[in-house]
Design a protein that fits this description.
Elements: E1 6-9, E2 17-26, E3 31-37, H1 39-43, H2 45-59, E4 67-70, H3 75-87, E5 100-102, E6 105-106, E7 112-113, H4 116-119, E8 126-134, H5 138-149, E9 153-162, E10 166-167, E11 170-177, E12 186-187, H6 193-196, E13 203-206, E14 209-212
Parallel strand pairs: 2-13, 4-5, 4-8, 8-9, 9-11
Antiparallel strand pairs: 1-2, 2-3, 3-12, 6-7, 10-11, 13-14
Length: 213
Amino acid sequence: MDERLVDLRSKNFREARIKVMQGHFATQNSHINTYIDMSTVKCRQNNAEVSAKALAEEYMLNLSVDTIVCLDETEVIGAFLADELAHKTKQGLSFGNNISVITPEVNSMGQMIFRDNKQRMVNGMRCLILTDSITSGKTILQAIDSILYYGGTVCGIAAIFSAVSKCAGIEVKSIFSSADIPNYGYYTRENCPMCAAGQRLEALVNGFGYSKL
């Protein structure tokens, strides 16, 4: 797999980069023709910090954040993002906030929940959702519903890559978009042109990574 991955650098933040690979892959909600490898961004200190700085620029002066809700193993980025928002610019609306960085639990019914000890970090709080990749937006909608259920408000949505510009009417801020991968495509299982052409699935992909079939 590694030899097929190609580096892609952000046009606006040259130090920020991801790796992409063309093929036929299945996510939880769709089929996609491009796998985006986020392991370096999410796991390596320098890459995670660079990504957090890029995202912080989108929110520094126009958003006050109490809690960052991290999806798909983005906690390292979330911690750096909290530090950028709370400590780096005194003019920032989140400056001085003691920002919580939390992850929802997914129960046996597939619902996102927050245990009793974490609910105080959501209830009455301005929550920024952070994720690695948004394709159809279904997982983000699930996270929004969970935050609202526990009494929080969603003040923003941030992603490393997003194929959509809005979720539930909330603008998505991302480092990379479909414009950076012009041939990026995602389809329902029933309407996948790669399946129709007889192209076999190569792997299952999700926030944890890539599993070859």
